[in-house]
Structures are given as C-alpha cells and as structure tokens.
Amino acid sequence: xxxxxxxxxxxxxxxxxxxxxxxxxxxxxxxxxxxxxxxxxxxxxxxxxxxxxxxxxxxxxxxxxxxxxxxxxxxxxxxxxxxxxxxxxxxxxxxxxxxxxxxxxxxxxxxxxxxxxxxxxxxxxxxxxxxxxxxxxxxxxxxxxxxxxxxxxxxxxxxxxxxxxxxxxxxxxxxxxxxxxxxxxxxxxxxxxxxxxxxxxxxxxxxxxxxxxxxxxxxxxxxxxxxxxxxxxxxxxxxxxxxxxxxxxxxxxxxxxxxxxxxxxxxxxxxxxxxxxxxxxxxxxxxxxxxxxxxxxxxxxxxxxxxxxxxxxxxxxxxxxxxxxxxxxxxxxxxxxxxxxxxxxxxxxxxxxxxxxxxx
Amino acid sequence: xxxxxxxxxxxxxxxxxxxxxxxxxxxxxxxxxxxxxxxxxxxxxxxxxxxxxxxxxxxxxxxxxxxxxxxxxxxxxxxxxxxxxxxxxxxxxxxxxxxxxxxxxxxxxxxxxxxxxxxxxxxxxxxxxxxxxxxxxxxxxxxxxxxxxxxxxxxxxxxxxxxxxxxxxxxxxxxxxxxxxxxxxxxxxxxxxxxxxxxxxxxxxxxxxxxxxxxxxxxxxxxxxxxxxxxxxxxxxxxxxxxxxxxxxxxxxxxxxxxxxxxxxxxxxxxxxxxxxxxxxxxxxxxxxxxxxxxxxxxxxxxxxxxxxxxxxxxxxxxxxxxxxxxxxxxxxxxxxxxxxxxxxxxxxxxxxxxxxxxx
Lengths: 360, 360
Hints:
globular, Isopropylmalate Dehydrogenase, about 50% helix, homodimer
C-alpha cells in the first residue's frame, strides 16, 4: 500500500465531454482515496468554473493553465507538433517525468497520448516498444490483456517483455503473487506464420521467469473465461479482440433489452427481476474496468476512455492510484532487470551472448 | 434457387459425437429440404445401425463404407498421410470432385479437413490460399466474416480475393445484390505494420469491383453491429475475433443465469419473462449459425462445429444446401474471373502487366 500521498497528474481537457466530466470523476475518486492529490492541466476559462463548483477537489489540487488542448481527432504527429511542451496532455505526462506527480491520466486520443508519452518519458532500458494493457472482466474476476493497440506486430522478445510487464501489473493491481500468463494463439496445429509466438512460448518454457507462471497458448474463448491472469498478444490482434468483445457485449445488451420490452409479461418479469438485471448491468458495465495502462515507459500513464462519464473517469483514476500506490514501475524495472540479466548468462539460441538487446 | 436435386456428401464420422448426431442432423435438414439427397461416408458398423433407425434419411441416401476415420486430435499432416484416398473425410470431399455430390460437409477437425480439401480439390485459378468464412450474427441480421483461420497472414491481393469470395457468398446465401465490404482494422492513425490492409483498401477504392460495395475500414465493434455485409481479415485475427465473440457471449450468458437464479424475485421474474429469455437464447444460439464455408477451392466444403448437436449439424447442412442451390462456386469463379481480367488492363502499381498472378 501507499507510503505517502499519491499525486495524479490529470489532463482536464481530454475526452469527449471535457473538464466537467473529468473533474467530477476526479472528485469521485478522491472520495474513495482521500489521501490522493491532483495536479490539473487545462484551459483556465474551461477548468476554473468547474473546479470552483467542486471545493473538495479544489482543496486537494494544484491547477496549471495550458493554452493548447489536443483534440480527439488530432493525428499523433500533428498533436506532437502542436502540443509538445505546452498542451494539457503533454504537461500531465511531463509532471510524471519531473516527479511532480506519480502517474498521469488522460481521456484524450490514444494515438496522441502514446506519441507524447513515448517522446516525453522514453521507453525503459531493454524495452523497444511500450504496450497498452487493458483490464478484462472474466468469469473468474479480471485479467490483464496486452498489447491492445500500442503497436502492430511483436517479435518473441517483445512478447516476453509484455509477459513480464503484464505480470508485474497483475501483482500491483490484484496482489497476485505469481500471475499465470498465456500467449494468445489460434488452435490450429502446424500452422505457419506465427513463429514469434511459438518462439516466445518455447523460451518461456525453457527458461522460467521469476514472478510469472507461463501456461502456454490460450485462445479467444479463454479471454472471457479468465483462464489465465495475463493474456499476451501483439497490438493489432489485441485491439480487435478488445473491440470485438465490447461489441458483442453491447449486441447482447440490445437483444436483452428488446426481449424484455416486447410483451407485458416480459416487462413484468423484468420489473420483478430488476435487481438481478441491475447486477448484470453492473457486471457488464464497461466503466468499471476503464483505464488502459501504458507499460514500458519511464513513468506510468493511464488512458481513460474518451467517451467516459464521471464514473468511468473515476475508475481510470482508481487504476492510476493503485498502480502508483503499489509501485508498478519499480516492479516492472526490477522484473525486467532480472530477465535481461538472466539472458546474458543463458544466451538465446542463435544469438551471441551480449547481443544488442542486452543493455550494457 | 435449385434447378435440380442437391446432393450433400456427408462425413458421418466427423465431430465429437459421431454418426448418431451427424445423421440425426441430416434427417432434420432433409425435413426442411425434402428434395435433398445424401452420400454418406463412414464405418459400416457405426453408421448402419443409426441409419436403419432413420428410414426417411436412409431412403434419400447412398452409403459408402470407409475403413478409416480421422480423429479430432489428428494433426493435418498425419490425417493426410493416414486418411488420404480412404477416410470418410477424404471420400466426402472427393465426391464433390467427381461430381457425385454438390457440396461436402464434415464436423471433423478443421486442420485435417482443410488439408484434405486443398489436396483433393486444389485452389481455384488465381487463388493462392483458401479462406474459411463464418456467418456472424449481428444487430442487423447476419454478416460474413473471413478468413477465420484457414491461414495466417494475407497480402493485399489475398485480402481482395477474400472480399470477392465473401461478397459472392453473401449473394448466394442472403441474396444481397451488391454486398457492402469492410476491411477489419484498428482505429489508430499513422500506424505502421499493416501496409497490406491499407494497400488492399486503396486498390478497392481506386478500381471498384463489380458486385461489391467497398466501404473502407471497420473495427472490432462493427462486427456485432453488422456495419457491413462482409468483413475481411487475415486468418489469425479473424479466428481470435470469432472465438473472443463466442467467449464473450458465453460469459454474459453465465452472468445472466447467475443473476436470474439468485433470489426468489428474480426467479419469478425469469418465469414471467421466460418467452423473452427463450427468444434471447435463440438469438444467441451458436447452433443457428453453424457452418464454416471453405472458399477458394474447386468445390465447396462446409465445416460443421465439432461439438455440434443434431440441430447444429442441420444448420451446417442448410448452409451447404444454400451454397449449392445458389451456385456459389460459379458465382465466385465468374467474379474472380472479372477481377483478374480487369487487373490485366489496369496493372497494379509496381507490377508489370501480365504479372505472375494473372493466369494465362
């Protein structure tokens, strides 16, 4: 748990609904973690009036005015060109770099946020590419799935890095000592084209990694089952899987609504079972698991869903709080350090010891 | 519609439950299409007793004994080595080649079935790789998604081939004149690594293809919405998406069941709304959309789900019937012919006219 106050750098301008929703979410999160502090970044005329209406939040916040706000449809390169060093998004990330804050949260556009986070914080030693980790509701509880869209494609070493980082996040967020890890694959045998996944699996079997329990390949159906604590895949497939699951949940929600309003009997049944439906809605509520965690950078940045309401924003801030309070960054650094130290003494097949991937 | 009797070649030994379920499914399908005929392949001692108990089916069937049955866990290479020329699976496919049947159906293992279908029927002219097309239930009805796992990876020309074949299937199965087609992609701009998808999109925009309406990129959430009639992707992503959707549907089904049995009020509500729940179950019933269609071969083969019950098997046979009755193969051949004829006159960028891909 937290030893000192956790400070959240918050991009007040991010998201589809702007400061009113972002700050309301911050206030809700603050009620749950009263020791939390905020550094807020945004345009004064938009943020001040909202903040003045939320005295509890105002009391625990420092506000910095920023002229520039990144729009939801700005391209990453455009955002970086126009918003670097001065936008609310940049400033929130920079507060993590300078140590003013422990973690940054933004509901701004993912591409821009990732581009700025990479530019500002840089990737960790040994890590070539960061990943976005999602919290996935399952029949067993919650799993972590990464990468859900930071970059397309991943080689075997990157998949192993994702495994290590995902396991560290599982420990930090869910206090699981030795999380189980699976590589997302398809069930067809003797199939060509995914040598990287097979190679990553082979390496993790041959050289077990401290702090994670590698369980082999998992399939798309295992995501909802929660077969493993951490599911690892490259960003294209991970993004498609995440959005397919979201779409399927919404689709079934629509079917259910249509079915329950079709006849008077069904409507009556619905009323009697309302508390059950409320529980179900709660289970399926995407706001409960809001917060994509950027992993592999020298600082933790949380992406809140652009369309989030206050409750969703609060959930993302909760994740940020947990990540900071449980020392996610230090856990990842120490775990990666062990993996890469190990790699020097046990050279990978076909690779010389002291290869380029091993930091000096 | 069908001009003459449709004959289905059926691998009676495929699937987890064997001939009893496969043949019961065939009988159900026969009741819906009484003009249908079957050629059945399987082990006499297993099939005969079942067939004797289904006199209607027996009357419309020819049975051929096969010594060898492919097991669900046989590897494709193993299946091909041991089952070529003699297994019930092979014989069902071969019946399509010889013209004894119009289409083959098997619930045997996908890898083995695809390996045998490729070996026996060969790919169509211009087609390098076959695809498996799935029928995907959506809020608008049903879409076709391909490839869901025949092969991993696809270049731009293969994605275009999939688009043409998927559109032909949409016309044959759903009588949609000019199906809308989307390429599955992720929403992040300026992302590297999926040049093939971008290139395929660019080509379909620049040179519209007769008989399909290309609508650009779609995302994972569009699958359940039914944004387009045909969603095109390479086999790894398609398989993960399909299984993720199946898993999510099952997950929500479990939540719903748990919620509805938790309190007496909920149970009572459930009883009153039972017909609504039955409708919902019906909507979500994976058996209703059973049948993966192998496209791109010189003959149509339908893969029924290994775990299907009789109703699921019947659904796969319904799909087979529709594909044959509506001349899917001829539609694909003529559409591909037009596309490749077109390509000669409009050479692809960076490719000489009369490149290798253009058949003489």
